[in-house]
Amino acid sequence: MKPDTADAMTDTNHFFRGRRLRSSRTLRHMVRETVLRPEDLIQPYFVLETDQPDTSLPIASMPGQSQLGLEALCQRVGTAVAHGLSGVILFGLPRHKDEQASQAYAANGIIQQAVSRLKETFPDLLVITDVCLCEYTSHGHCGLVRNGRILNDPSLELLAETALSHARAGADMVAPSDMMDGRVQAIRNALDSNGFTELPIMSYAVKYASAFYGPFREAAQSAPGFGDRKTYQMDPANGREALREAAADLEEGADLLMVKPALSSLDILSRLRHRFDCPLAAYQVSGEYAMLTAASQNGWLDLDAVTLESLTSLKRAGADLILSYFTEDVLRLLES
Prior knowledge:
Layout (H helix, E strand, L loop, with lengths): L4 H8 L12 H6 L10 E8 L7 E3 L7 E3 L1 H13 L4 E7 L16 H12 L4 E6 L13 E2 L2 E2 L2 H17 L3 E4 L6 H11 L8 E6 L6 H6 L20 H13 L3 E5 L5 H10 L4 E5 L1 H12 L5 H15 L3 E4 L2 H9 L1
Parallel strand pairs: 1-3, 1-4, 1-12, 4-5, 5-8, 9-10, 10-11, 11-12
Antiparallel strand pairs: 2-3, 6-7
Helix pairs in contact: 3-4, 4-5, 5-6
């Protein structure tokens, strides 16, 4: 028997009508669960030691990004600050490299100069420094090398000295990315014993030995001269290990934890978010940036749309802060 009209209408109300809250742009924005803010974004910059401080050398594998002399850096940062940039992270490209990475902790090294210059020019800008040796060693590894082996404990002293030199230059935060065991504790001890007890550490706690780092090695001139970094960076297949690394860094004195690379580690971000209450950062790395940019240049993707979607997915997975080469562009999008 055919049901009457009233019964039929009642039956249709038993299923979920999610479209009711999607009917207009205004309503969609009102009920949006995840919001991307300018304060969430950090722009990485590559600082080049050069006699011509206005130098800007485009990075072929990262269209839109450049190696910047000090003057060019300040000009570019100034433009971004005008659009709402809150934070930067700096990577140095020194003139001189040696086995001891001496320019990493030199008082007048390129990063130390850049920090001092940026803090003088933009006092409210959060200036974070990457703490690693790979950009400064002649062999390109993140620690000292002896007989073809990357040494852990002897590298800690130089990493701590590097972080301390950044603090003395005026850095607001240091971010060790080397993946040597115990480096957070070594850096925390060095900072505390020299009066920098209030300086936070953002640890690259979960840093996988990822194939997505390729363009960065061109940008930072930091490709290893032999072998690879798999003896100290994590195996991308491991998830439980990420929890151990994160817990260890917090115990050693880290204030924020970072996951890298971002888009292929959404599950790890989510697991860390549920396990730890500290702020979490995600690094949308060079390969992710290059991949989306190249697809856009071929007309295959809407770059603005996929950029916003990818960054929103990182926040949805649990990131509080996002390091992305798209930051400058996204700040302009968020203004519109």
